[in-house]
Amino acid sequence: MTDAPQVNGNSLSHGTTRLGGLLAGHTQAAPPLPSPGTTGLHRPGPGPAGDAGGAAGPADVGVAASMPGVLPVGWEEITGLRQLVADDIDVLRKERRAAGSPLREQALEEAVRGRVRARVAEWAQQWSLEHPPLTAGELERVRTEVFNLLFLAGALQRVLDRPGVEDVLIDGVWMYIDSHDRPRQRVPSPFATTGQAVEWVNQMAAASGHGERQLSYASARVEFDLPDGARVAATLLTEDVVIAIRRHVLEKAGLAELVQWGAVDPLLAAFLSAAVKAGQSMIIAGDMASGKTTLMRALGREVPARERLATLESEPELRLNFDDPGLHAHVLAFRTREGNGERDAAGRVNLHDLVPVSLRYKATRVMVGEVRGEEAVAMLEAMIAGGSGSMCTLHAKDPQSVVDRLMVPLARAGLSDQAAYRLIAAAVDLIVYVDRIDETDLGGREHRFVSHVWEMAGRGEGGGVALSPVFAPGEEAGEERAVPTRTPMSERRMRKLERKGFYRRWLSEYPHGQWQPMRRAGGAA
């Protein structure tokens, strides 16, 4: 057929930071983590359940050397140097502001590098009076760690820069690394003591602008963002300090990249792109870590440039502030705000408050990062009252529970079942479900893909809502991903899609979609 679906996308980001790239010429590449089936370095004593622990073997030495905790000097030396450089830069900033020429980002980076080199050189001379002199490579490692602690994620940057790393969790003496398409890795924590871990958290929180909230036993939890957008949550409410870091590997991915990754096929990508352009309001549902936010972020890139899009989040994950407003929508990124104290609600702004606020700034669409509470009512009302094309994500453990899961926050907000069903039926056009199959423990890979797309078909006979499947798993062909069902869409919605470039005949001409073969563990493609 001549007019096959076409999708325009953006270049794929592999998750490395720009500043991290600048360090590439100054640091040696870290050796890869052990392949599936090998063990990391075990400290003495029992490990987690199912992990017997044991003595380190030859393979463990390479793992340990690749971890950020192996420094030629003590951590206190690194933090001391970091403070000296920070003081130098504060003085330079004040001087430049007084002269009317404040430091720009690139000039700031170069100034920091210069001060790091100078301070480390001075320190190395004093160090060598009482210790063996450091080699050139060891001095470069010290310079890198000081720079990282100022600009990046400090002791963890080398781990976060590895391709595919999505989640890192430090629990006491162990660090757990979750990467795309790889089994979970367990390696020693880069921090030798709880004090070092807490100090790292507070250093990074201060650098992120959240320095007023420090991690301590009086204030036992804190959340903030790293410079590359990764989200950090740390707590002392557990037996030992726990630090969780979440990264979005596909932060800059559009629909074209999701096609390459197997999350959607070209037919489904064209359908969803047209639905966004046509102003179809949709809910993107799925289980944890299934790719809901990644899909909604990609769909946000399809919003026409003439529109203004408001993103409402408690944690900044969408990050749709585009560099070229001529190609993408104007984005207003709203965030919730905590109260003035642990028990003080004064100054608190939640997602429910943000929905009407965003509409006052002439936002034509609203995107809510995740609907959990009473903001569900405001979100659905915004979809009805002019926010056509709005989107939100919703946690649902299986496709059949999406509507029931949405009913929970509506009931908590005081709506009766009938009122809630009427609101859902009037507000939502499409429901998209993202599924996940993890076979990394079987030697396979992790599959994340859209499995269902339903059209809202009004009220059901039993008083609920009626959903019409537009895409569903192709059970007859053994396909677990979404393929056309040939169920007719409402004529009004289909005409809107056609005006945005989607041909209805594609749904019948591609009965099995355009998916590439899925390679499952233990079987051929």
Describe the structure.
- The protein starts with 17 loop residues before the first helix and ends in a 16-residue tail after the last helix.
- α4 (105-130) packs across α5 (136-151) and α11 packs parallel to α12.
- With 525 residues, the protein is an alpha/beta fold.
- It has helices at 18-22, 58-66, 75-98, 105-130, 136-151, 157-160, 194-207, 255-261, 266-277, 292-300, 351-360, 375-384, 402-412, 417-427, 491-499, 506-509; strands at 165-171, 174-179, 185-188, 221-225, 231-235, 242-246, 282-286, 308-313, 330-335, 365-368, 391-395, 430-438, 446-459, 465-474, 479-484.
- It is built from 16 helices and 15 strands.
- It folds into 2 domains: 18-44 and 61-246, Beta-Lactamase (2-Layer Sandwich); 255-509, P-loop containing nucleotide triphosphate hydrolases (Rossmann fold), CATH 3.40.50.300.
- Strands 9-8-10-11-7-12-13-14-15 form a 9-stranded mixed sheet, sandwiched between helices.
- 34% of the residues lie in helices and 18% in strands.
- 38% of the residues are buried.
- The chain is elongated and about 85 Å long.
CATH topology of the largest domain: Rossmann fold
Q: What is the strand content?
A: 15-25%
Number of domains: 2
Physical arrangement of strands within the biggest beta sheet: 9-8-10-11-7-12-13-14-15
Mean pLDDT across all residues, rounded?
78
Write down how many β-strands occur, each being a DSSP E stretch of 2 or more residues.
Answer: 15
Distance between the termini: 25 Å
Q: What structural class do the secondary elements suggest?
A: alpha/beta
Number of helices: 16
* Main sheet characteristics: 9 strands, mixed
Provide the CATH superfamily of the largest domain. P-loop containing nucleotide triphosphate hydrolases
Low-confidence stretches: 8-69
Residues in helices, as a percent range: 25-40%
CATH class of the largest domain: Alpha Beta
Query: What multimeric state do the chains show?
Result: single chain
Radius of gyration: 26 Å
